[in-house]
Amino acid sequence: MKILIGMLAVFSAYGQAAVEANKSYQSTEGRQRMVETLTAEHRDARQKPKELIAALGIKKGMRVADIGTGPGYLVPHLCLAVTGSGAVYAEDIFPDFLAKARERADNNECGHAFMVLGDEKSPKLEANSIDLALVLDAYHHFDYPESMLAGIRSALRAGGRLAIVDYYKRRGAMSNANPDFAISHVRLDDAGVVKEVEANGFKLVSNKPFLPGSQYMAIFEKK
């Protein structure tokens, strides 16, 4: 039994942690369906991007990375907040998602948005290049969180912050026909995320509900 527990612990630390959450993204057809969901017009009412940006204190001139941008839902909102004197780095591991994000940026005259092709273990961002790394609805998709956090930490400038906005691992947290969907889909509840992130070179600044009963917002600074 002790051996089995040890093997499970090693898998959790070093294996693909988000297999269940990532099933829908493994095919071109699955990602196309997600594009329609993630960029649907009604998403603003649920996700509240203006309130999110205000809560994070994103301002003119900042350099912000949208980690796991998908088809770039948040990119136009971030571009508007940082203006042309800042920069938005839209990162994802799928080229087809980044193509959609580029299209979305161009359609919104966001010339200061830059697409970054990362991989499962690294966001591939330059060291000391960003003021804020935002992970919106994507942390529970990290297969290799320790490696990703190391890459994010390296990319942050002195005084830079990491913001994770994600779903609670609780009944009814995700808008789905199955009220238990979040329990099986999300890897860790917010307390577990805080513990994991702090174990990888970050210090918690704040953790509070963003969308009550659905999402939290945890903000960290690198140690």
Question: How would you describe this structure to a colleague?
Answer:
This protein has helices at 2-14, 28-38, 43-47, 49-56, 75-82, 95-107, 145-155, 181-185, 190-198; strands at 63-67, 87-92, 113-117, 130-136, 156-167, 202-211, 215-222. It is of the alpha/beta class and 223 residues long. The protein has a single domain (2-222), classed as Rossmann fold (3-Layer(aba) Sandwich). β4 (130-136), α7 and β5 (156-167) form a beta-alpha-beta unit. The protein is globular and about 45 Å long. Residues 1-14 have low confidence and may be disordered.
Count of DSSP-assigned helices: 9
Can you write the helix and strand succession as a string?
Answer: HHHHEHEHEEHEHHEE
Approximately what portion of the residues adopt beta-strand conformation?
A: 15-25%
Distance between the termini: 37 Å
How much helix is in the residues? 25-40%
Class from secondary-structure proportions: alpha/beta
Radius of gyration in whole Å, from Cα? 17 Å
CATH topology: Rossmann fold
Query: What do the pLDDT scores average to?
Result: 90
Low-confidence stretches: 1-14
Second CATH tier, the architecture? 3-Layer(aba) Sandwich
Q: What is the count of distinct domains?
A: 1
* CATH C-level name: Alpha Beta
Question: How many runs of DSSP E, i.e. beta strands?
Answer: 7
Reading side by side through the largest sheet, how are the strands ordered?
Answer: 3-2-1-4-5-7-6
The global form is: globular
